[in-house]
Write a structure and sequence with these properties.
Layout lengths: L10 H18 L19 H16 L9 H5 L2 H10 L7 H4 L2 H23 L11 H4 L1 E4 L2 E4 H9 L53 H17 E4 L4 E4 L2 H4 L6 H12 L3 H9 L3 E4 L10
Parallel strand pairs: 4-5
Antiparallel strand pairs: 1-2, 3-4
Length: 295
């Protein structure tokens, strides 16, 4: 696992991160022990990454419309695939870093776990309408992995983004002495933003990933996202409207220039490509639709 050099925070800084996260969870009414896979732990799996991928993929087949990417949560809740997945999560408390695999295997494991966790949370908490109505759901929805609590927010920002702060919060998920920091993956691969599905209609379509094919799959997810609504060009006004994901996580892509370079690399729109090459496009960002991605 790769690590980037960082300035070591002071003990006071470590304590502030811990207190800030604890305070926010208390404010939202989230217990530090609340997880969706509580109960007697089952024996650890020999290959948790592949087991998770197979189980999560079975849930996708059972309840996700392949044309629209929308989820039939009623069908999912009653499916054998969901029941088997819930059983599998009871093995996660005994999962160790070395069980997950190399960097690519780790990334695939956490992407798949995040996407499955969101599906599980929507069913378990009875989410309807907009995800914004379920305040704090991304901190509430969590699994015990390796004896430690990982919320959806922890997985996205703490693990897959190398412990970078949520764009809506002023502090990182993990303090320097937090044992979960061992799971943080660096350097960040910004294409994970096209693979993580938070359950909203403006998210990318749901898919599940294989560590042995991850680079190819993330590249495909990036291209599909840009050409399926992530970038919309109005040739009359020379206006490029981009997904707000690209605004929130702009630093991960190398700033505004990096976002435009990525769009240029991925787009199939000849007019947009020309506008980007000449620098004549006006940039705006779309409103994010937090409506649940349900059928």
């Amino acid at each position: 696992m790769l690590h980037m050099e960082r300035v070591q925070p002071s003990k006071q800084g470590i304590q502030m991160v811990r207190l800030a996260n604890s305070w926010l969870d208390r404010l939202l009414g989230i217990s530090p022990n609340e997880v969706l896979n509580s109960g007697a732990a089952l024996p650890a799996l020999d290959n948790p990454a592949q087991a998770l991928k197979r189980s999560a993929d079975a849930m996708r087949v059972s309840a996700v419309d392949p044309e629209t990417g929308k989820v039939d949560y009623g069908v999912l809740a009653d499916s054998k695939a969901y029941s088997e997945f819930r059983q599998l999560t009871l093995s996660l408390p005994l999962c160790r870093l070395e069980d997950i695999g190399d960097r690519q295997g780790q990334m695939a494991f956490w992407i798949n776990l995040y996407n499955a966790l969101i599906l599980d949370a929507v069913v378990s908490y009875g989410v309807r309408g907009s995800l914004q109505d379920q305040l704090g759901i991304f901190r509430q929805a969590a699994y015990n992995v390796g004896g430690m609590r990982f919320s959806a927010d922890d997985i996205e920002n703490g693990v897959l983004r190398g412990n970078r702060r949520n764009p809506f919060l002023p502090f990182a998920p993990f303090g320097r002495e937090d044992p979960r920091l061992e799971m943080a993956i660096e350097p960040i691969d910004p294409r994970v933003h096209f693979a993580l599905v938070c359950g909203a209609r403006s998210c990318p379509p749901i898919a599940f990933y294989d560590g042995t094919k991850l680079d190819e799959q993330l590249e495909s997810a990036c291209i599909n996202f840009i050409n399926s609504g992530g970038a919309d060009f109005d040739s009359a006004s020379r206006t490029l409207r981009l997904s707000r994901i690209l605004r929130w996580y702009q630093k991960d892509f190398g700033g505004r220039r990096g976002v435009l370079e990525l769009t240029k690399k991925c787009t199939n729109d000849a007019e947009l490509l020309s506008a980007l090459e000449t620098g004549s496009a006006r940039i705006k960002y779309m409103r994010y639709d937090w409506t649940l991605n349900a059928v």
